[in-house]
């Protein structure tokens, strides 16, 4: 495992601007770089990257960190994978130990599947039978380059080839849990025989399952495709084919194409579109959607053009929601791979990028009754479509779909359809506030709105306090007072000038006005006592609280002259000295109230005198 100093050295070798600019358009702004934050929606840039100090900080949502935390957050990967990626970017070779793999109880299963994938690939690329399979793949447009990129393989006709080659290397219990074998009459057989093999990898690149496709015309075995059954490392309702390789492109474009099978993904890959994944012939699930929503904001459904594919699109819309979804319909009932073969990969790329339609356009065609001459069928269809039309945010869009609906309904004119839409719109608008609030609470998990909460309390830990409980698309950090800005500037000076921190550390009477700054000050003291100086990157890594870490990066974002003068420090202290004295006054008032309740006359007299003296300081 990497040591802390090794990671620090790696970060020093790489300019954080070079790393982040792969995913965010940055422009120079003084000593820093700014851009639109990739972690929340915004129109005005508030995402700040400091090349000199090696960190980023968003003044809109508070997201902060260094090279590694950016890769973790943006690409939704673990710490070690982020370190590996940063090392690859820097051209540095890392020597990671095997401790993590040994501690992982599923490591033998990953190892078994990885070795099986290598065997399958060797059989495809280095045997006589493999040459025949390659000739078949060549006819389908699968070149040696694609075989290598997707690590394709071949399961031989022998019924136990993989078992015979791997059984001596793994425990029988591991073999039984792998999904690679089946058992009958006290014998063990390979689960895949005489099939082109498509390995399914998890987000870390480990092979967790396989999809096997028939390739010989005389093959009468079941199913065009068969997939690994569920195992401890493979959940078909969670894993997505090609996600590990597509993730960088998805994270950058914020779009993902959803397809049915591996051959469709390969067709898109050959067409030059890489942000594609497949559900391996299974229906889209909530687990799939939750996983994709961490990476993408738009989903393009590109399923087969047959009835099964269209039904899958209809069901997927319920999970994804119509606002974030577009659809590409493959004509003539073809699947994407067939379309590319019939026309060209360029035609497929054009269809995928320019042939997208909105969900409502798909629904009008999908739900259109077979017999539109029947008046009741028309009425039912009109009822279904008006309910969808009024959901559109634009009146212009609503009008366009009204006109399209009129073209489909032989017994209704424009005015009649428009009236039906208007009536539906009025009914929707008449819903009471209570009904709307209950819907929001049920749909989002947020409570029903309540009266406003008092303004941000400086004495509380640093945290936004909204005026009312509501969903905010772009959270905002509270505006800081003059005193808070002075406290941040002073902390910035302490971080970069250890002598100044030590001076205040020895002043027993000194305290920051606001609790969250005082907490940070105390942690800085412990850091200085341990390491003599403050290394911002090292200190930030030790802050486990996200809000506290965001506050720290906000503080070091101050662009100040290198050296602080005595006059600057005195001005900073003077700017919040009165609030410090007020805090002392309020503390004495509380102590006096306690003394009165306890009937302690002597203590009450002392505190009264102290209050009088303290009040004089405030005048």
UniProtKB/TrEMBL annotation:
Its cofactor is Zn(2+). Residues 254-335 form the Toprim domain. The keyword Cytoplasm does not apply. Binds 1 zinc ion per monomer. GO terms for cellular component: cytoplasm; DNA-directed RNA polymerase complex; primosome complex. GO terms for biological process: DNA replication, synthesis of primer. SUPFAM superfamilies: DNA primase core, Zinc beta-ribbon. It comes from the Bacteria. Residues 444-484 are annotated as: Disordered. GO terms for molecular function: DNA binding; DNA-directed RNA polymerase activity; zinc ion binding. A zinc finger (CHC2-type) spans 37-61. It is an enzyme of class 2 (transferase). Its EC number is 2.7.7.101. Pfam families: DNAG_N, Toprim_2, Zn_ribbon_DnaG. Keywords: DNA replication, DNA-binding, DNA-directed RNA polymerase, Magnesium, Metal-binding, Nucleotidyltransferase, Primosome, Transcription, Transferase, Zinc, Zinc-finger. InterPro entries: DNA_helicase_N/primase_C, DNA_primase_core_N_sf, DNA_primase_DnaG, DNA_primase_Znf_CHC2, DnaG_bac, DNAG_N, DnaG_primase, TOPRIM_DnaG_bac. The keyword Protein biosynthesis does not apply. RNA polymerase that catalyzes the synthesis of short RNA molecules used as primers for DNA polymerase during DNA replication. Belongs to the DnaG primase family. Monomer. Interacts with DnaB. Contains an N-terminal zinc-binding domain, a central core domain that contains the primase activity, and a C-terminal DnaB-binding domain. This is DNA primase.
